[in-house]
Design goal:
Helix content is about 60%, strand content about 5%. By secondary structure, the chain is mostly helical.
Length: about 525
């Protein structure tokens, strides 16, 4: 009986496969995830509902670890290592631009497209789980912009190097970052930037120009805090990470009067995103740049190891704009999955025929993208309205909307990594040959035989990839329920017990989005290169 069910599911998954595509998640793993989700849902509903549970902090300061703690402290309190890393990433970035502008335009033979869209974007999202927002510390966009404007390799630049204007209140939020994320997605998938080395190089140059203008006009690093879609994505995901920069001794920060971590010192720049280490509770805007570790006269800042997801579960306080950014992450990651399915092009062609679109079908694509982004938002809004009705409409809809958005973030994070794993293990094949010839000089497009071998011989066996993808989806679901279980009782300011029925609206939304993500992973996925 079970074999029959599995074969039927497999036939549904693979019957639309065309050409060279990544195989979808196997039916056996799908059943395991679905059964586990059901058990976790029953646990949530049947477990005792009540007031928000107290949070018992369980953290370890890296500084206090034997043998390595003090050595790490010496490294992070000096600018040498981070400066060398910034020089290295900036050099790679300039190579990417040069290769994109002057190298071959065969995407799979050019380092601009293979490094940017296959290795870097996948790797930087995965890295959040291990090092938080550390990528921002060595970001080449910020490094080059800083060197151009401050005219210093690492020391604090002159105040006269920038107009130091305050960011207008209307954009002192992350709505610009969400807008940038939407535009980048439209360019990536609609305009085909991922398969154009030249367009990839131009896009990279454009972001550097925007970062440089922002630094030359506004105080500190407004681009990093308000405008950068990549930085805000890593900042949002950083709440799940088990590592963060925090004080070694909170009492030292409490007694500090000079706040070098915020104001900087004679040689070190102030915090680029206006954070005070002593009151820092979440990673959202920390770029791990090292300014606080280097400027603190007490050397009281170091990496802290904590339980996975503790910050987003207990400490984070989302604002209205941040909750919308989280929903944007969920919608856009799901949309990426839809565009990789073999029948996405058929849908777009049918829509184009219906509306009279022609050429690159950008109008059809834009409509499809808009609808795909809107559906999760509408479903979430409906669930929030239902939840507000259950708890008696005592709380503002806006507050409920913002608070519950945190339970959505693990779903986006888990699927983001799971989706990119397939690209990473297959499309990174042959990257060593690209390192040897980054411009792709005198190369030809991949032959059908090469494409077939790349498709059939991934860097990691399919069984391992499937296990990781299934585990990620289940992890995202479990983390979402954990956040929901803690934060929902907090909405009832009266302190009374929360009804089990209050969990149903968000449980349905979390379950439905998880099953959509699981279904997308089941589908055969078209390779980009």
């Amino acid at each position: 009986m079970l074999d029959t069910i599995l074969s039927q599911i497999n036939s549904l998954v693979y019957q639309t496969s065309e050409g060279m595509v990544h195989p979808g998640l196997s039916a056996g793993w799908v059943l395991i995830v679905l059964v586990s989700m059901l058990l976790l849902s029953v646990w949530l509903v049947r477990s005792t509902a009540g007031v928000a549970r107290p949070y018992n902090s369980s953290v370890i300061s890296v500084y206090k670890l034997p043998f390595i703690g003090k050595n790490i402290q010496r490294i992070i309190t000096r600018p040498t290592v981070i400066t060398l890393l910034r020089i290295f990433t900036a050099a790679i970035f300039l190579l990417v631009i040069a290769a994109g502008l002057f190298g071959t335009q065969v995407p799979e033979r050019n380092i601009a497209t293979t490094l940017t869209w296959t290795l870097w974007w996948s790797g930087v999202v995965i890295s959040v789980f291990f090092v938080g927002s550390a990528w921002c510390a060595i970001c080449p966009w910020d490094a080059i912009a800083t060197w151009l404007v401050r005219r210093r390799l690492w020391k604090r630049g002159s105040m006269l190097s920038s107009l130091n204007l305050r960011v207008p209140k209307a954009i002192r939020n992350i709505w610009p970052a969400l807008g940038m994320f939407v535009v980048l997605t439209w360019l990536e998938l609609g305009y085909g930037v991922t398969v154009s080395p030249y367009a990839t190089a131009l896009l990279a140059l454009l972001i550097v120009v925007l970062a440089t203008i922002s630094l030359a006009v506004y105080e500190r690093k407004a681009f990093c805090r308000y405008f950068c879609a990549v930085g805000r994505t890593l900042g949002a995901y950083g709440g799940i990470a088990p590592i963060a920069l925090r004080p070694i001794d909170n009492a030292v920060c409490a007694n500090c009067k000079t706040l070098e971590c915020f104001n900087g010192s004679q040689d070190i720049e102030p915090c680029p995103t206006h954070l005070v280490m002593g009151s820092l509770k979440q990673n959202t805007y920390c770029t791990s740049c090292g300014a606080c570790t280097q400027s603190c006269p007490y050397q009281n800042v170091n990496w802290q190891i904590r339980n996975i997801g503790d910050e987003i579960t207990y400490s984070s306080r989302p604002h209205w704009d941040e909750s919308w950014f989280i929903l944007g992450l969920l919608s856009l990651t799901i949309f990426h999955g839809f565009t990789m399915m073999p029948y996405w092009e058929d849908w777009m062609q049918q829509l184009a025929y219906f509306i009279g679109d022609s050429g690159r079908l950008l109008t059809s694509f834009s409509i499809g993208m808009g609808v795909a982004m809107l559906i999760p938002v509408l479903l979430y809004s409906a669930c929030i309205t239902w939840l507000q009705h259950i708890i008696g409409k005592k709380e503002e809809w806006k507050r409920v909307f913002s608070s519950m958005a945190l339970s959505v973030l693990p779903l986006a994070f888990a699927y983001h990594i799971a989706h990119n794993l397939s690209h990473l293990v297959r499309e990174s094949q042959g990257f060593l040959s690209i390192i040897v010839n980054p411009f792709g000089t005198d190369t030809l497009p991949l032959s059908m035989h090469e494409i077939h071998m790349r498709h059939m011989n991934p860097a990691v066996d399919d069984s391992i990839v499937f296990a990781l993808q299934a585990t990620l989806i289940l992890f995202g679901f479990w983390m979402a329920l954990k956040i929901l279980r803690h934060r929902l009782p907090q909405l009832d300011t009266s302190g009374k017990l929360v009804s089990r029925w209050a969990f149903i609206p968000m449980l349905l939304f979390i379950s439905s989005m998880s099953m959509v993500n699981l279904w997308l992973l089941m589908q055969p996925m078209i390779m980009r290169m």
